[in-house]
């Protein structure tokens, strides 16, 4: 396989065939994110994409999961996305799911009919970053969208029969916006009722505006105990029946998972136990993106 630059994928795509259909992120201005800073956003030539799938078929006897990278595959023309999915079905009849990241902007340009066609041709799930349900946090972090727009795009994916996985980041509001960030993020999740909810914990990466703000004292990071407090408020306010909640990323201090709403009490018990023994949290040195 041929890759340009660093390639990122959700943790659940660890065993997937990954093919870049775009390079980088079309937004690329979030203050906390360094993932695609080294790449200018571009559409990868279609002939190269199709050739990569052909090469993969020669190499791998069985491919059950495919992830279309980089940050924003849905921004391609609908006809090109359809052609990519047709090609996947032809080459990999055993493939059970095809997934991709989708930004609110790229979901907005897709019509309902286009999304339904992509679903029918095998697109099974879209991963979308909410980051926060609090508009003040979204503005501060230069997400480029307010929460109501992100919620509407998540709902659009779901009403067209494509599964939705949404992530947000604990600590993204710092201490000042902690409570609002937790409550409004929970409400945004509730409004989308996605199949999967993923919580990361804020990490500061060199080369980002956030890094400079932390160095200059303009942004305060949450202490691990505060992250637990914020997580408690978030979980208390979650009401999203059927959503699988996962907070088991390498950035998290505490591993927490369950199915909503039935596992809320058990998840709260895990948070309570962790608050009584902070030494059980992942040490700072072992956290990673
Ligand atoms: S967080 Fe997502 S949308 Fe924001 S710059 Fe990073 S990849 Fe792009």
Brief rundown of the structure:
By secondary structure, this protein is of the alpha/beta class.
Indicate the mean pLDDT.
Answer: 96
How large is the count of helical segments? 10
Order of helices and strands: EEEHEHEHHEHHEHEHHEEH
| Spatial strand sequence of the major β-sheet | 1-4-5-6-7-8-9-10
Task: Describe the protein.
This protein is of the alpha/beta class. The chain has ten helices and ten strands. The chain has an eight-stranded mixed sheet with strand order 1-4-5-6-7-8-9-10. Helix 1 (46-59) runs parallel beside helix 2 (78-91). The mean pLDDT is 96. It binds iron/sulfur cluster. Iron/sulfur cluster binds at residues 25, 27-28, 30, 33, 35-36, 71, 103, 129.
List keywords for this structure.
binds iron/sulfur cluster, 289 residues, alpha/beta, 17% strand, TIM Barrel, 10 strands, two-stranded antiparallel sheet
Secondary-structure map:
Layout: E1 17-20, E2 22-23, E3 42-43, H1 46-59, E4 65-69, H2 78-91, E5 97-101, H3 104-109, H4 112-120, E6 123-131, H5 135-140, H6 147-159, E7 163-170, H7 178-192, E8 196-201, H8 209-216, H9 224-237, E9 244-247, E10 256-259, H10 264-276
Helix pairs in contact: 1-2, 6-7, 7-9, 9-10
Bound molecules: iron/sulfur cluster.
């Amino acid at each position: 396989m041929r890759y340009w630059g660093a390639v990122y994928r959700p943790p659940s795509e660890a065993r997937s065939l990954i093919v870049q259909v775009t390079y980088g992120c079309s937004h690329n201005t979030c203050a906390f994110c360094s993932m695609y800073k080294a790449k200018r956003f571009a559409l990868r030539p279609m002939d190269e994409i199709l050739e990569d799938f052909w090469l993969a078929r020669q190499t791998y006897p069985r491919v059950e999961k495919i992830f279309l990278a980089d940050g924003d595959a849905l921004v391609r023309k609908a006809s090109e996305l359809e052609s990519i999915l047709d090609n996947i079905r032809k080459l990999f009849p055993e493939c059970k799911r095809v997934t991709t990241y989708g930004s609110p902007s790229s979901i907005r340009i897709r019509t309902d009919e286009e999304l339904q066609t992509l679903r029918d041709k095998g697109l099974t799930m879209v991963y979308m970053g909410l980051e926060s349900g609090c508009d003040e946090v979204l503005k501060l972090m230069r997400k480029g969208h307010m929460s109501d727009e992100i919620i509407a795009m998540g709902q659009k994916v779901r009403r067209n029969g494509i599964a939705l996985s949404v992530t947000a980041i604990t600590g993204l509001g710092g201490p000042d916006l902690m409570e609002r960030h937790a409550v409004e993020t929970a409400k945004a999740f509730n409004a989308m009722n996605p199949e999967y909810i993923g919580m990361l914990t804020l990490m500061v990466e060199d080369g980002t505006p956030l890094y400079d703000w932390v160095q200059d004292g303009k942004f305060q990071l949450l202490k691990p105990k505060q992250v637990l407090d914020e997580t408690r408020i978030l979980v208390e306010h979650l009401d999203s029946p059927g959503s699988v909640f996962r907070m088991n990323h390498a950035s998290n201090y505490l591993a927490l998972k369950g199915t909503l709403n039935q596992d809320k009490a058990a998840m709260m018990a895990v948070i309570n136990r962790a608050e009584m023994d902070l030494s059980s949290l992942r040490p700072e040195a072992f956290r990673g993106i």
